[in-house]
Specification:
The protein is α+β, with helices and mostly antiparallel strands. The protein has 26 helices and 34 strands. The longest helix has about 40 residues, at about 690-730. The radius of gyration is 41 Å and the shape is extended.
């Protein structure tokens, strides 16, 4: 059977038994803060198992996309080195939500494996939890498995938990014995490829609480998971998942990419490193494509960091394939779309986006890799022959901090060279760096003492409705005041704090900062310390114009976010923000520079929405699940509790947000981008202004352009002066040339008149005229000179000069001579008797024109 047929056979089997065939959930578990990635088929049904959700069906089956590279389920280091672990795999599964239980699950599993798929029963083992007598007896009662093949194991192997908390319960696993003589009983759950688990039947009956305790669920459920890649290998008679047809297209592509790999696969060159590298690349590209298609992006933390690490690991192993060192993973992504696009259409639909992201990330890392590898080699060569071949923590930290070289990559390279890394010292240096960073920001955080962190101190925020309010003083300590109610907004979610005035007992105190301390709102005053009695009635008034400017920018940020996703793609999500009175800043995931055309389009969309005068609907303190059903975008990631606020500007922008906003988006006035830049690989930063901020921006721009204009005028004047000086110097440098030319004049036959005719080099007509004037200065008496120069754009310039005595005594005029010469080159000219100029359009006739000077002068004399 092909892998495609195996998958369909599984779904058909359970569809015939009343199961709803459901689509795979995304590998990004949106709304579940306990997981970075979907790590089991049951994740999308977690609410059902917890009793807080329901479905229209009680039986389901699917093939679920699963990524296991973090937390409890982390298979990363095994991938490629063994035959059956993967970072991404498909999980074939069937579920019962309070419907059937252990008996049916066990019976159907055995029927599918042995009756439908005809697996050798003598190679199958079933394991049960050590105290699960019910499952042990059911295996004997509802199947014909050899009773000796039913084995008991402890919680490590046969009690399934999704994570540190959540639904869990005993499980019964089915293992396949690959040993030639079927002697693998002692290898069950030994973690070896000779006997591997192929199916896990989980009987969910508990919920694991944060304190570790178990509580019975109101209904019992079945959750099964079969590794698709593993069962394909078994059914196709392969001992390695990588030998099944699931991976064949990837290895075909890699062998075509790299002749070295082709030789290794053909057995010509027994290079196990190349085989392992091929497996790593094939596995990791599937993870990357699926995750990015589902909305994840490589980044510096969380799931973004995990993806970046996987991509870098694939790129690093890719260097062993023998191909070029240029990006190649993005091209291999085509194979994922071809092989998985039918069952997971989003992979095919978002392929171009996925390739762009991978190409940008891979290209950036290649630069880091080349630079880091060179330094690593220098370090390694100096210590390989030493008594203690260990890379120092200082060198490892330098690779990490200065060159952006991942520490795990340093460890891998060191291991390959038989070296160790002083990780304790590296961690020490890393912590010192973190401590330095914390100290830089500590002053802003240290606004309250431990006294103020009492759990019973609470403040009510009234700033959504009011710019000023009256509250009772709860705590006064130093320059910090806590009221029971206040309109002052404490910095959160990128929006900076309000400023304003607290009036206590008739005394006005200016508030410079506001901070959240547990459930309290602490006002930090400009004064070093004040005295006030607890219980004093305090008037709290925020700086109203400043707050309104902040609200404009915050609401504009929401509109801009939606416009960014509309123009650039839904992969865009926030990576940080800052909302101040005078501007807004927004960091977001994107793999390339936002073009000027895209920025103009985003600007136009935001301003068009502003003109639509949409009113704000502010949903406050509503259940998280209700907000999700509204389609609200989680603007600040997974940072919200059971109750949330949603800022709603109609279908165009509906986002989770606890900040303050304008009542109508028309109040924003106008929106304008001021900058776009990169702050990290795959992260862009844009800044913009609105309302009064645009006025200030325009004033600043006008001032800047005025200064630039003055600077330009000064530079232009300086340039003209320099050009004039340069021209003088250039001409003066040719004076000797003019002296020699004047001395070379020859006497016209039968007269005392001397003639000069010469072709010179000149930049333009003006320079030729200056040369003519210089020549005239050098001429004594009785001389007529004609100079010519070929200029750019097929033009010719002529100058005639006549000494004063010939003008006066012989009545020879430079204008008459130049006019006749110019006719020969297709032009005309004129000027003073002593000096005249002409231009022409036939530079090829300049030589002929100069040859006619003598005849024209003789004619003038007669």
């Amino acid at each position: 059977m092909t892998s495609k047929e195996i998958r369909q056979s599984f779904l058909d089997f359970f569809a015939a038994r009343g199961h709803e065939i459901v689509p795979s959930a995304p590998v990004i578990p949106h709304g579940d803060k306990t997981l970075l990635f979907t790590n089991a088929g049951m994740n999308q049904f977690k609410d059902v198992f917890l009793g807080v959700g329901s479905r229209s069906y009680t039986r389901a089956a699917d093939t679920q996309k699963v990524i296991r590279v973090s937390g409890k389920h982390n298979d990363l280091e095994e991938v490629g080195h063994d035959t059956y672990h993967h970072t991404f795999f498909e999980m074939l599964g069937n579920w019962s939500f309070g419907d059937y239980y252990k008996k049916e699950a066990i019976a159907w599993a055995w029927e599918l494996l042995t009756s439908e798929w005809k697996l050798d029963k003598s190679r199958l083992y079933a394991t049960v939890y050590e105290t699960d007598d019910e499952s042990f007896e059911l295996w004997k009662a509802v199947t014909d498995i050899d009773p000796a093949h039913i084995l008991r194991f402890g919680a490590k192997d046969n009690f399934w938990e999704m994570g540190e908390t959540g639904p869990c319960g005993p499980c019964s696993e089915i293992h396949y014995d690959h040993t030639p003589d079927k002697s693998g009983a002692h290898l069950v759950n030994a973690g070896v490829p000779e006997v591997i688990e192929i199916w896990n039947l989980v009987f969910i009956q508990y919920n694991r609480n944060p304190d570790g305790s178990l509580e019975e669920l109101p209904m019992k459920h079945v959750d099964t998971g079969m590794g698709f890649e593993r069962i394909c290998a078994v059914l196709q008679g392969k001992h390695s998942n990588y030998d099944s047809d699931v991976f064949t297209p990837y290895f075909d592509w890699i062998q075509n990419y790299s002749p070295t790999t082709a030789m290794a696969f053909a057995g010509v060159d027994e290079n196990q490193d190349v085989i392992i590298a091929s497996r790593v690349v094939a596995d990791h590209i599937r993870t990357l494509v699926v995750a990015i298609a589902d909305g994840a992006m490589p980044g510096n933390d969380g799931r973004g960091y995990v993806l970046r690490r996987i991509l870098r690991r694939a790129a690093r192993y890719g260097r062993k394939l023998g191909g070029s060192n240029s990006p190649f993973l993005y091209d291999l992504a085509n194979v994922v779309a071809e092989t998985m696009g039918a069952i997971f259409p989003e992979v095919r639909e978002r392929l171009h986006l996925v390739q762009d992201v991978i190409r940008a990330e891979e290209g950036s890392f290649n630069v880091t890799l080349d630079r880091g590898l060179a330094l690593f080699e220098e370090i390694a060569e100096t210590i390989e022959d030493s008594e203690s071949p260990s890379i120092t923590g200082e060198d490892a930290f330098k690779l990490y901090d200065t060159f952006g070289f991942p520490i795990d990559l340093t460890q891998v390279l060191a291991k390959e060279r038989g070296l160790s890394v002083d990780m304790p010292r590296f961690e020490e240096l890393l912590q010192e760096q973190k401590d330095r960073s914390l100290r830089v920001h500590a002053s802003k955080k240290q606004v309250v003492s431990a006294t103020m962190e009492m759990s019973d101190v609470q403040s009510e925020f009234t700033g959504y409705e009011h710019f000023e309010d009256t509250g009772k003083t709860l705590v006064v300590e130093g320059n910090t005041v806590i009221l029971d109610r206040t309109p002052f907004y404490a910095e959160s979610g990128g929006q900076i704090s309000d400023t304003g005035i607290l009036t206590i007992d008739g005394n006005h105190h200016r508030v410079k900062d506001v901070r959240k301390v547990g459930a309290a709102i602490a006002h930090v005053l400009e004064e070093e310390a004040i005295e006030a009695n607890p219980g004093a009635i305090t008037k709290a008034a925020i700086d109203r114009p400043r707050r309104i400017d902040i609200m404009r920018n915050h609401s504009a940020t929401h509109l801009m976010h939606s416009a960014l996703r509309k123009v650039l793609g839904e992969h865009v999500h926030q990576a940080g923000s800052l909302v101040t009175p005078d501007h807004l800043r927004f960091d977001f995931s994107h793999f390339q520079k936002v073009t000027p055309e895209e920025l103009r389009e985003i600007e136009a969309i935001v301003n068009e929405k502003i003109r639509e005068t949409i009113k704000l609907i502010h949903h406050r303190n509503i259940p998280f699940e209700e907000a999700k059903k509204m389609g609200a975008l989680m603007f600040f990631g997974d940072k919200y509790g059971a109750f949330v606020n949603v800022v709603d500007f109609g279908p165009f922008s509906r986002e989770f947000c606890g900040g303050t906003h304008v009542a109508n988006i028309a109040e924003i006035g106008l929106f304008k981008f001021t900058s776009e830049s990169s702050i990290a690989s795959g992260v862009r930063r844009i800044e913009a202004v609105t309302g009064r901020g645009i006025e200030q921006w325009l004033i600043a721009e006008e001032k800047k352009y005025s200064e630039l204009s003055r600077e330009y005028d000064a530079l232009l004047a300086e340039k003209q002066k320099l050009e004039k000086d340069l021209t003088k110097l250039r001409l003066e440098a040719r004076r000797d040339e003019m002296k020699k030319l004047a001395a070379s004049a020859k006497v016209l036959d039968g007269t005392s008149v001397r003639i000069i005719s010469s072709e010179l080099s000149a930049r333009d007509a003006g320079e030729l005229q200056s040369l003519g004037e210089m020549l005239r200065e050098e001429m004594k008496s009785g001389v007529v000179a004609v100079l010519g120069a070929k200029l750019a754009e097929d033009k010719v310039s002529l100058v005639a000069v006549v000494s004063d005595d010939l003008v006066k005594e012989k009545k020879i005029k430079a204008g008459d001579i130049i006019g006749k010469i110019a006719e020969i080159v297709g032009g005309k000219g004129g000027g003073r008797p002593q000096l005249a100029q002409a231009g022409g359009k036939y530079p090829e006739k300049l030589s002929d024109a100069l040859k006619n000077v003598e005849d024209i002068v003789r004619e003038s004399l007669s």
